Batch of 2 targets.
Target 1
Amino acid sequence: MSYLSETGNLASAPELRTSAKGTTWCSARVIHNYREQDQAGTWHDTATIAYDVVVTGRKAEQLVAAAESGGNIGIAFAGKYRVKNFKRNDGSAGIAYEVIADQISVLLGQDVTLAKTGHATAEDEPA
């Protein structure tokens, strides 16, 4: 598995879940648009990649709360990264990008309300 650090926007608000062991977690779909500037100085989207970002513990709870209050928010994330091949319903091949996040944050410049909480706990560490 490789390590990735990336930014993007939430495609939708993730849903908070609880594992059989009682750990809270969520899977957030994050969209990153790659852009290039042409010789005239105009920016163009060149590629779009969707990442499935798995977040655990208090960080998952905070991400869900921020998404519910702020909508399509921009985030930065980092963690172990893997590419998975799959077959779509129509039989064509697809690629999924999954990140088990150990770091996640809301990007500044957005109208999102965050509250300071206590220190991180062992539950906040990725499984």
Note: Residues 8 and 32 are 4 Å apart (CA to CA).
Target 2
Amino acid sequence: MKRWEKSVDVNAPADKVFAYVSDFAHHTEWSGHGLQVTREGTGPVAVGASYSTTAKQFGTQREKSTVTSMTPPREFAWDSVGALGRIHHWFSLREDASKTTVTKGAEVVEPKFLAKMTMFKISKDLPKTLQSDLEKIKATVEGSAL
């Protein structure tokens, strides 16, 4: 249905950036809306791993997120299912010399009524949210010894 992407260059190797963005526990550090994440089950992050998330956007949103793709250090993707429907999220990374271009995207795959009714607002706000998330990720990765 609708798809958005934003990118930023991070002065760090792709494996360092990938380790940060593929760890759902870190998503609370850069994501807006007071995101809380709880792992369902145990073991390493892998395709099929699921997480319960809660955020404050259009009211309280409770979702189940499931990792759908993980190709270190190039791609990490997950689907979130909640009140808006099913949203596909991803990071793609491309390393070039001393920097890594990080692209973060989202696509409304199976919208529910709420997503259809608020698509104008989502389309206006989501690109800004993606860019803000990327800037926080850049600042954290460049400024830390992850």
Note: Residues 2-142 form a domain with the Alpha-D-Glucose-1,6-Bisphosphate; Chain A, domain 4 fold (CATH 3.30.530.20).
